[in-house]
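User: structure tokens for this one?
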Amino acid sequence: MSVYIPNHKHDIFISYADADNQPFGQEPGWITTFIHNLTILLGKKLGRIDIFSLLMGTELIGYDEITPQVADQVSNSVTLVLILSPAYLASNWCLSELNTFLTKQKPSSGRIFIVEHDQAERPQELQDLLGYKFWATDDTGRPYILGIPKPNPEQFEYYQKLDDLARQLADKLKNLKSQPTTTTIPKTTVFLAEVTDDLIEQRTTIKRFLEQQNINVLPNKLHSFSNIQTSLDNDLKQTDLFVQLLSDKAGNGYPLFQYERGQLNDLPILQWRDPNLKDLTIIKDNNHRTLLETDTIIATGLIEFQTHILNQLKPSEILVKKDSDILVFVNAAPEDMSLTHKITNLLDENEIGYTLPINVSEITKSSEIRHYLEQNLLTCDVVILLYEQSSPIWVNEQLLYCQRIKRRREQPFKTIAVYKKSANPPLNVKLSNMQLLECATVDICLSRFLQVIQT
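Assistant:
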């Protein structure tokens, strides 16, 4: 196995505590499974699985300090992936690996990636770094680890964070590889404000979209409350646009505080709220209700809001990457098949590939229908589900099937869109990456939608 970055022994060194990798019965350890999945994703993003070197560190029983041989491996690695947990902090060996890497690279180098395996205090040197949180809390506030005893196919959050880590690692390696020969063009930078807990998934969706457009996203570190205003202003001074996602939650006033700092720094501002949040009189916090009524609020779907962000930025500031190899699955019940012709015409005009449902006849076997549906959902990048004449029960069932099929896909769906006739009853299923398209005609909805999915 070769190294991706020349003159190094390894591109990625994984520092972890053995206690966190103990197997559960016949299942491999959490970290072994995690690294296996990460390696596969990195191979897809870098081109091949054999063009980079990843080394998993190992604690030696009876040793408090790492051996000179291990220290040499750490020192000559390009990046460090640290699996943070209470067991990690209790291991002198693990802390020695971290300190060895820090003698070569500063925390601000962007070469340290923190995977939060469990709830744990950060080492002082890493307080300002963002992490990839692989634990959550239940309804009672108790923490639990995602992927125990093995990744649950229904835990979309696990796979999304894994993909985020792989993408950031791959981007870092690509940037380092290109530095000696490529002049870096200054990027557009967007300040994407921190959100309340109920909007974390939506913020992640916007962040991933912007980064795919070669746009820098700040903040890229945790802000300390001791100097929150100074730290926030330092980020805002580097940005071209302030973007904020809002819900009915006031978040102890922090959304308002960020907005006010954005105003004081004379930034153009775009804010989003869910279009279903219509009755603002239910908001008890007067200041937050006023924030939700500002002129810069756009109440629309996330896909359309992404278009507003790109339109706000000057065309010369960004290089929108068109995805010419995208495949759209237009899923429709027999009663909505006539509508697919309008959609395929739009897809043809935009030179976007598509697949349609199987033509069902009396001799078509149910197993054939199911197999064809599965193959479409496993292969496509985008699903457009039609809900004009079809029943809400059928649409809900199709959405649940999309959720189940995620576990078998190599990559998450880019998005799942539902074109809904306004008068139709509301759906009972809402997926994390689902967009609801409600317009007067399908032409209007799809024209806006197609502009975004190609980027």
